[in-house]
Design goal:
Arp2/3 complex 21 kDa subunit ARPC3, single chain, globular, 5% strand, two-stranded antiparallel sheet, 4 strands, 251 residues, 11 helices, mainly alpha
Length: 251
Amino acid sequence: MVLSGFFVTNALVAEFIGVKLFSLEKTFGYEEVNWTILGQSNLSFTLTAGVLLWPVVFVMTDIINEYYGRKGVRRLSYMTAGLIAYGFLMIFGAIHLDPAEFWRSSHQSNPNVSADIKTAVTDYNAAFQLTFGQSLWIIVASLVAFLVGQVADVSAFHWIKKTTGERKIWLRATGSTMISQFIDSFVVIFIAFYIGAGWSLSRVLAISIMSYIYKATMAVLLTPVIYAVHGLIERYLGPELAEKMRKAAQH
């Protein structure tokens, strides 16, 4: 329940905050890299805020995979995709509610809202619609990429585990995450912007590569977290039950 709750929460929050784009370099006080890839110049690490949480989702996938196997991860993935779709449906309904007139400008009298925001945002309802009203193509792309990435993660995890046995947790966990993140990075941008927005294929591929560089780096950096969570679960379950669950998860 704890693992599933954390998994679903991270996936939902990642979808909802993903509308914001941020500069990774500027966040840490550096100039943008401005690389050129596949003829596309001025590329930098401009990422959606959702990337802060998606690596955690895939780490949780590997942990759940370790003890509950393909069936457990797939069931949880399908449920999560359904909950994400449900969340977007509720937001769509909220966007089309008639706002209370005083609420449209209620932020103007709020002392905790900065003067810059008060000047930029004159209608609170319009800001709400703009923030949460993601395009249908982006919603479809994120859901498809999530499911395809999860299936790829599960398959890669068990293939590596079958090859290496119980050894090398880092290889099956980090390796499967890097494979699934590679697929996720290209699928979401291809559907959202190649099909949905008519971008050129070279531009889509270049931006996907930049996104994957970040995700792959995070997958490696989060490897110690996998060992830490794995250790906590082993102590909680006890060696006999943990081994029994791991063996059952392989089938």
